[in-house]
Amino acid sequence: xxxxxxxxxxxxxxxxxxxxxEWADACVMVLPCGKSAHLELGxxxxxxxxxxxxxxEPDEPELMYRETYAK
Length: 71
Fold this sequence. Notes:
Layout: H1 2-6, H2 8-23, E1 26-30, H3 35-46, E2 50-54
Parallel strand pairs: 1-2
């Protein structure tokens, strides 16, 4: 995993994604989604930016989704 993430293609892709997150005012995470989307939503919450979760199917509660509540 470390070798893959250190590869220049991975480093470049991460830089593009991170720059886009810094530029954006808000994040909408659409369920179902993967691990990266959850990390990105967490970054938005930590950066004090607006974060929303969109899910159309009932699912078990995730307590940490409370991070997206308006403060």
